[in-house]
Amino acid sequence: MDKIQAKIHYIYHSGFVIETQNYLLVFDYYKEPGKSIENSLFPSLLLAETIKEKKEIFVFCSHSHGDHFNPVILDWESYNSEIKYILSKDIKTSTKKSNYIFMEEDNEKEISNLYIKAYGSTDIGISFLVKADNLIIFHAGDLNWWHWKEDSLEEQHLAELNFKIQIAKLKKEETIDIAFFPVDPRLEEFYHVGGQYFGEQLHPNLLIPMHFADNLLVTKEFSAKMEKLNIKSIEIKYPSEEINYSKN
To answer: Is the pLDDT of residue 108 over 60?
Structure first.
């Protein structure tokens, strides 16, 4: 059996925790839903006791929208003074601190042997490419092919063009191990077009759906579509679900 190289924990919406050999990475924490029978089996990784124990914690936030940025994350440094925040430049904080690292599109950083590159978005903010422990991780934030049926044909064309420009830039990177990408059911029958295009163009080893709020069923539908295209995706069944990742 292959060695597990990352443990991925779904939090809610676009929020995930990723544990690698040396890092704990938190992306777009919004909230944790109430405990259910299923997710009570997986206690939160973001309790004060857990945060205290970890040495290398990076908390990423792709933009300031309320479903991606919750200011409560800034309180976590009271449990661990070594925590580092990687924040989109559009996020406003009341103070500037040395552990607040603000990024915009095309910025690159290397911190504690962790490499971070900011890619663009088709909404506000940025998306993140992260290299950690020989893994390449991509979190799209609100980067998506936002095909809204009520938009004009001109607006729809521009949305498609701007999205494909960002994907073309990403194609210059090495193969992505783990990608998190929106499958927003508000787009109705077009919910999958961005994720499908991303998968077909970039062929990540694992494509994980996000940005679906409480509509978990859409992840089942999406993973079935991707299976037909030989793109590995997953169904997410409940908050706090753990997904193990190993390279072939």
So the answer is: yes
